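Here is an idea for our session: we take a single protein and study its fold together. Which protein we use is up to you, so please pick one and set it down. Once you have written the record down, we can walk along the chain together:
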Amino acid sequence: MDPLKEMFNETYFKKLVKNVSEVYLRVDKKKMYQDLIAGLPARSLNQRMRHTSMVLKKYLPDDYKSALQILDDLIPKMDKGYTTLVFPDYVSLYGLDHLTLSMQALKNYTQYGSSEFAVRSFLKKDFEQTLHIMKAWSLDRDYHVRRLSSEGSRPRLPWSFKLDEIIKDPSLTTPILNNLKSDKELYVRKSVANHLNDISKENPEYMLSLVESWDQSHEHTAWIIKHASRTLVKKGNSAALSMFGVKSEACINVEDFQITPSRIKLGGTIQFKCKIRSISNNPQKILIDYIVHYVKKGGSHAPKVFKLKEFTLNKGEVVEILKNQKIVDFSTRVHYKGIHKIDVQVNGKIYTGGEFVLE
């Protein structure tokens, strides 16, 4: 059973129909419920959400403004969380020709879940006007709305389509990011960091120049910059490393790299260890990542960089690094049999490690 898609279950639909009937007396509760659960077992999570939006359209008034008024009364009655994405989804499906009304609805609905996916349909249809409204959102008193201004305009929001205009010209969302660069809410700061990380994938120079113009002594701003730079740091970008006082060429040796056991089965754990020896006369700031080269279905390798440790290495000091890694399948990663490799990356430079066999 998929626990996510089961959020849209018969219990949820019974509550939805009951609450709809309380704010819209003309609804046929029995027929609406039967339509909602029709074909339910075969539907995926997103299919269930989209089907719910379409059934709402069938039973609500044809007039869009009237339908929104009912949804506005309905959403506070529903449990907050993923299932409330039905409301912004409805807006993205049926409100594209009503920009002002729809954007106000998305602003309202985002406090109950998030309108980050729905607002992108409006950016696709009318980029300039939608972004203009979202810039104003970045100054809103409600932190959910401020977060939406950043998250909804991310160049590469996961599970959504890319925003090519912003990928080509990241300055388009700079006013939003500038307004949020020291936001007091962690929920907002995470979005800003992810937005900047998106930008860094195609426009690293622009992203770095922007954050370097900010006051890095501010606690909240410094947090954003650190998390926004994670991809560049993992790639060993010298400018990003320098921003954190890290030299891209550490004066070290990597010694005695070992992986045990040499052969494991899926579900097992491998351990690797090595020593980092300073060959410098001065203290050095050290950032250590490790790279697992996973076997792909076709037999080639796909590298994945993981954060490991950050410390200061003094003159002549030797630090032992040890890490356990469990090899299990996830929804985002399936493992294949064969020779896997692990390397160590120190201040952006890769040092060859060792390998193990997944049987």
